[in-house]
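[Meeting: bench + compute handoff]

Bench side (C.D.) handed over the final construct sequence. Compute side (W.E.) agreed to return the predicted structure before the next meeting so the bench team could plan truncations. Sequence as handed over:
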Amino acid sequence: MHRPVHTDNLPKPVGPYSPGMGFERLIFVSGQGATDPATGELAGAGVEIQTEQCLRNLRAILQAAGSDLQYVLRCGVFLLDMKEFGQMNAVYERDYPLVQGTILFIALLFMLSNLIVDLLYAYLDPRIRYD
């Protein structure tokens, strides 16, 4: 059976959806922008700070579900400007070197922030028992 994943460490959703959904040993995570949950505002103008905030938001969802970033199988990054790829990738590589899943980068023509990060699947931590 599937189970919704919620945590107080996230920005409030803009619609009627769950930030994550657990199903058996998998977690499906909704795409996360760079909104700072403490302020409800965009974390900053630069792609580096936005990348850091997106990954903090994703980590909060995974941890609320009993997992973490090192179990990610696939990550999608949607950039407003592909010229910022190097800056985004430097943060991603620096802060999360253990994330070894596949990654997809797409440039979009219109977004409210410089990037959105979307985790499609993550394993649950096999050391934790889930009932």
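W.E. noted at the follow-up: The mean pLDDT is 77. C.D. will use this when planning the next construct.
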